Amino acid sequence: MNTNRSAQVFKSRTPAGGLSSRALLVVALFALACGEALAQEAAAQKQQTDGPPSAPPPMRYIPDDVRRRLEAERDPKARTRLSLELAEERLSRVAEQANADRFEAATGELGVYEAVVDDAIRFLKTSSPGRTNNKMRDLLKRVEMTLREHVPRLETIRRMLPSQHAVYLKDAIEFVREERDAALNSFYDDTVIPEPRQQKDKPPAAERAKGDTPAAPEVEKKPEQH
Fold first, then answer.
1. Is the dihedral of CA 38, 44, 50, 52 positive or negative?
2. Domain boundaries, the chain
3. pTM
């Protein structure tokens, strides 16, 4: 009995003391799982090194229908009002597209927004060459105040976008700040009135008394008569 039982145990083993087919299958599956895990880890490390794939930059342009509406307004006040309305509309579209996770569409609307803002500043500059009058200053101030309000809205949208798209919102914020500076520079370019040269060159009375010219003698008082 002992001899037969030993023979049965011996037959259940693989030749030359090897592992059973089930054990080999387990080892193969374990090796495959380890290989996939290593491949995923290598891909993750490569993505961290290379960064996320870059998104196409927004193209700054004014659509034909928007261009026709702007060119139809030649009065600076009406043109500025329309430009700011169009900029507000495009900025709202940027936020809507970002909320819907349509990031490339959002940056596309951003390009139109930037083009409209740039056109508004350029039109005001060319409309009043030379000295800026009070009417033009009011329009420039209105543009500057509107762009100031746009900066925090752009910051909010930037936080909603992936890094490869958010970089263009960061560029847009810098662009808006530069346009604000351009509006302010046009506003203040001729408001500082230089001091008249004659009054500027004329020394104070105390300095004149210390110079070569003698100070005027005091008027001699007459004695009081009793």
1. positive
2. 64-188
3. 0.62
Paired tokens of 148: 């100031």
Cα 6–Cα 11–Cα 16 angle in degrees, nearest 5: 105
The span from the CA of 60 to the CA of 115, in Å, is 5
Mean of the per-residue pLDDT values of the chain: 76
Position 24 confidence tier, pLDDT thresholds 50, 70, 90: low
User: Can you spell out the DSSP letters for 82-116?
Assistant: HHHHHHHHHHHHHHHHHHTT-HHHHHHHHHHHHHH
Q: How far is CA 165 from CA 41, 103, 145, in A?
A: 25, 7, 27
Look up tokens 């009002």; give the residue.
81
Structure tokens at 69: 């509406």
Determine contact, residues 109/61, Cβ cutoff 8 Å: no
Amino acid identity for residue 171 in this structure? D
- Which region, left, alpha or beta, applies to residue 17 given φ > 0 means left and ψ of -120 to 50 means alpha? left
Number of Cβ within a 10 Å radius of residue 44: 10
Nearest alpha-carbon partner for 150 in 104, 78, 84: 84
Helix axes 103-127, 134-160, angle to 10 degrees: 170
Structure tokens at 56: 């196409």
Q: What is the pLDDT of residues 80-96, one digit of tens each?
A: 999 999 999 999 999 99
